[in-house]
Amino acid sequence: MTSVDQVSRLLALVPYLQHHPDAELEATAQVFGVSSRQLIADLNVLWYCGLPGGGPGDLIEIDMDAVNDSGRIRLSNAEYLDRPMRFTPDEALSLVVALRTVRELAPASAAPGIDSALAKLEQATGTLAATAKVAVASGSAELRDLLAQAISDAVLVRLEYTDAGQDLTTPLVAPARLIVRDGFGYLQGWSLDRQAWRTYRLDRISSAEPTGDASPALPEPPEFGPGWLEQRPEAAEVTLRLRSEAAWVAEYYPIRKVRRGEDWLEVDLLVADPGWLRSLLLRLGRMVISVQPEPARQAASEAAAEALAAYQAG
Amino acid sequence: MNLAICLLLARRFVEKSQIREVVEGYHGLSDAAFERTFERDKDELRGMGVPVETGSNSVLFPDDIGYRIRRKDFELPPISFTAEETAALGLAATVWESATQAEQAVSALAKLRAAGVDPDPERLAGLAPSIGAREPAFAEIWAATSERVTVRFSYKGQPRRVQPWAMAYRRGSWYLVALDVDKGERRTFKVSRIDSEVTRMGKPGSYHVPGEVEMDAVLAGLEPGPADAEAIVAIRDGRAADLRRRARPAAAEADAVPCGFSAFAVTYSRTGDFVGEVCAHGSDVIVLAPAGIRRSVIAQLKAVAGGRK
Known about the structure:
A: SH3 type barrels; 4 domains; 15 strands; B: Arc Repressor Mutant, subunit A; 11 helices; 23% strand
């Protein structure tokens, strides 16, 4: 018996194979997001499908020998099914949101193509496409333009960058790619100063200047997947107990675990930069009930005392 | 599959008895088994979005019910893309981290490829956008929004019944814009604050979503309010670049500004947030005016400094 997913796929597979004569088995499986074994199973079902009547001339023809011998798919006798089905609402929405995400990260030069693709999709899918919006904090389109150009030219850039601890730095970077994580755009690049892969939040880059020097040959940058922070060796786990009013912390930052009490919550988070944690504790003020390990709080207290001294002097 | 082809090819409504005759998969079934199988197949086709219509060919015998699929309702309308557009679509299919939406986007792109659209992966190399969702209620809310199904859930402990209109992603969080059925008003919900199962009520497509213009206005409401209050601060030279970006140089009494600092006027929208923001900069930012903000900052710094051992 054929499943719903399979029939849905078959209805797209038939026109696809007619538009791509002699399609490769592996490549086709990839297009449809299935294994090649599943694709062969699909073809075996198609073999029994066709015009009402079910006689030899009525069925869709697939050269199964070519599939088995050379991994090529040849399909014929299905001219009546030469267009794919309309998008389902979920497909349309998923693709439109994905495209809007691309739009948020794309350099200015790519924007017109994305906008017109969106407009065409919206026309093909009706009002549904309007029902999802995406906003990513990814700096200016001009900055992304400059970085995209530097990536494709493989040249070094000198950044002016405010790091998470609010220090202004000027790293020399071989840019590799632009990525998005948790709603923020980043430049992933090889830091020549640190001799290591680093990520730079786009909205914290105040300027980028190509130096004219060629980038060194770089390996593939590490995957920046969910939990990327955990891969950073310098990251340490910190536990904050906060008053309930500060519950936004659990939604705002990548948190490993949350425990809730009557009027407090406890969050475990990974901190790669002590300066960032110091800033967070200063920002939260009285909302912080306790901090583990203790030295983290010590640093924030000292910073607060230093700031108070400045007020008393003034 | 055969049922889909049969109905798709027919110009007229096909009666059930005819279908049973021509579709090979139905041969050899008992009456009851055929009824069951046919009804299931028909519902499945509808469930995947195939528009199976019911009607009669005859004006004289309107009770002779048949079925058909109209080609123009079934097929993806003619659509063509430039190379730039196609490259963006190809990249879009790689964007989702959530498995369900990733599958849907891949399947949508496969349909476009089946219509002859072929992305070139070399264009837009160096871009790796991604979007995901950590909210437990996300999948249900997403499905309800795309299918337009009324749902109920508990939000911050309060029961709600809503008609989902739209979803928005901002700074890593998902929001739902919906009509609150009980209040008769539009509301915005942060999906992470839905603290129960999401239960469907009624059928897909059972309400109407207002047009796009209004939606843009709703979604703009997610942005922080206008920064209409102003403070004078002293910023240590070379520090606090984020504050400095939305500040302009300001005049201040010379002896109020410490050595190595410059005075700026900076706008903000919410007092509490601004006090926190200033404190986060420690001794790099000192509030000069207004006096109320200055007092709040000093009080908060004292609270943090008091934690010293």
